[in-house]
Amino acid sequence: MDGPKYRQWMEHTIQAIARVFPDGTDLANWSTCKRLLPHAQACAVLIEDHDLRSQEAANLLHRMAIYLREHAWYSEAEPLYQRALQICEQQLGPEHPDVAYPLYNLAILYADQGKDAQAEPLYQRALQICEQQLGPEHPNVAYPLTGLANLYYSQGKDAQAEPLYQRALRIREQQLGPEHSLTQTVRRNYASLLRVMGRDMEARKLEEE
Hints:
By secondary structure, this protein is mainly alpha-helical. It is built from 10 helices and no strands. The protein has helices at about 5-20, 30-50, 55-70, 75-90, 100-110, 115-135, 140-155, 160-175, 180-195, 200-209.
């Protein structure tokens, strides 16, 4: 098989695996992710060795990294996030809204490992991209808002965390409704912060809601 034809078949293979490799954040998908992981890893080697830069390649690397991070395989997930981010920036531009996803998830990876200095600028950049490209009230803005708030909360920076929780909660309530699981998660985290700050009555009111 000659070079161009071999590359074409590599790209077709990556596209096929990318179409069926599911979102690793959903527990219901983990068995499928586990079954497809060896095939996806083989694709990751092709992507790296042959410098393949399609959006399908970036999507596959990103989903693989999410699944690996969910299982605390951080050292395996990190280079996949980084490569996915690099491809997205090259193919879409550094300010494209889809760039915010690998930025945000790479920030979570670092935050999970206590690497706050690496996580913070990624959350901030993801937030800036979402606000500028999607609008300040878009539902996706709440993701980096919450991530950054959680980071500041873990650092004891209560005054910096509170307005981020407030804004994330308002967006979640407006866009998803007060009973949605994502809304309730933000509300619980904000209530925990209020208790740490000694504002038990406000925290109780949030918890009752």
